[in-house]
Design a protein that fits this description.
Elements: H1 3-13, E1 17-21, H2 23-26, H3 49-52, H4 55-60, H5 62-72, H6 82-92, E2 96-101, H7 107-110, E3 116-118, E4 121-128, E5 134-135, H8 138-141, E6 155-159, H9 168-179, E7 183-187, E8 207-211, E9 224-226, H10 230-235
Parallel strand pairs: 1-2, 1-7, 2-3, 7-8, 8-9
Antiparallel strand pairs: 4-5, 4-6
């Protein structure tokens, strides 16, 4: 039996599916990932990407942070791809119970998915660090220099930077969903970023599936591993 047929059988059998998505899910929509062969980490910048997207860099070199953020993190025009669309249908069918995502692009929500836990936040929410007034994405991407609130405070994107903790609600809800899944599909992530990668240890269900172009540290623990184009995989699946 081909691997795609095995995956289809697993989906058909399962009643409680959780989808764990990484940057590779969004590359099908034209968004650069971090560690892929053409990812941001392979490009030349004044500092490593992990530094430029760190809380310390944001605090100490805010204007440089925003220069980078506006140029490389703006995915407002990106559209959901075949993966997001398939997941929406799977959720509508009552089989997909939750999406746990490391992505900040909001594409799962754009596709209409309802139960999405954003471990690293979202570009669509921004807030004043002084008075906590909330702003939409345009304030970060359309302004020049450092965006400021009407109170004068600096506005920060509600994304989790390196050196920051994951949001408590998303953290707890993700663990809860994964621990009750009978099928966990992990797609488009290298599974090297913690604590998110550690969530897999909470899975006690029947099938663990890992879909990623490159090997991950968890491949040997999986029921099924496919190192193929995610777009091609999901184009072949049925609900």
């Amino acid at each position: 039996m081909k691997k795609i047929e095995i995956l289809q059988k697993m989906i058909d059998e399962s009643k409680s599916i959780v989808f764990f998505s990484g940057a590779g899910v969004s590359t099908e929509s034209g968004i650069k990932d971090f560690r892929g062969k053409d990812g941001l980490s392979k490009m030349k910048f004044p500092y490593p990407v992990e530094v430029m997207l760190s809380r310390r860099f944001f605090d100490e070199k805010t204007e440089e942070f925003y220069d980078f953020y506006r140029k490389y993190m703006n995915s407002l025009d990106a559209k959901p791809n075949v993966i997001h669309q398939y997941l929406k249908k799977l959720e509508d069918a009552g089989k997909l119970k939750a999406i746990v995502t490391q992505n900040i692009d909001g594409l799962h929500e754009k596709a209409g998915c309802q139960c999405v836990y954003e471990l690293h936040g979202t570009i669509y929410k921004n807030y004043c660090m002084r008075c906590h007034k909330e702003y939409d994405a345009s304030v970060a991407f359309d302004s020049k220099g450092i965006p400021r609130c009407t109170c004068g405070g600096i506005i920060k994107p509600n994304v989790v930077l390196y050196g920051e903790s994951l949001p408590e609600y998303a953290f707890d809800a993700s663990i809860e969903a994964i621990s009750h899944a009978d099928l966990l599909i992990v797609a488009g992530t290298s599974l090297t970023v913690y604590p998110a990668a550690g969530f897999l240890s909470y899975f006690k269900g029947k099938y663990l599936v890992i879909l990623n172009l490159e090997e991950t540290p968890f491949d040997k623990k999986a029921s099924l591993v496919m190192h193929e184009s995610l777009g091609k995989i999901f184009e072949s699946l049925e609900i």
